[in-house]
Amino acid sequence: MADTVTVAGLIATPIKHTVTSDGLEISSFRLASSSRRYDRAAHAWVDGETNWFTVTAFRQLAANVQASLDKGHRIVVSGRLRVREWRNGEQLGRDVEIIADALGPDLAWGRAQYTRTPRQAPSEGTPAAVAPVESAAAQPEALEALDAAEAPEEREDIPAEAHDELPVPF
After folding, report:
1. In this structure, CATH architecture of domain 1-107
2. What is the predicted pLDDT for the residue at 130?
């Protein structure tokens, strides 16, 4: 059973980014998530217990995490929860891991600027290749070409008003 969770917290360790021999990108770090409550007797906010998670991201998400986030950033992560027991001699422990499906800055604590990562068209017989994150900032015309390529073609069987852009409510 895959349990999906969403957790807000603080990146507590440097992000470890590796690329396997097969080219799979993996980023991981420890996330500290503390609850806060208002103590009426003391008239102050107090920290509750801290929950610790290992967050792991794969593929393009891993590359974007490594390029965008650092230790100390406040984030929100959503993904699949995995709890594993471990034993090291006499010591017993539990590792709580979140396999990230989505991850980003927590905008309750600051502002962020989004930059879309352009994707290259896959060649025949190969999985979709992804351009490096740096290429988006270096070549803004690549983003314009990408947006133009993804625009729906005007077809006779689709009304013209269906191609009009609609305002986004956020």
Report:
1. Beta Barrel (2.40)
2. 47
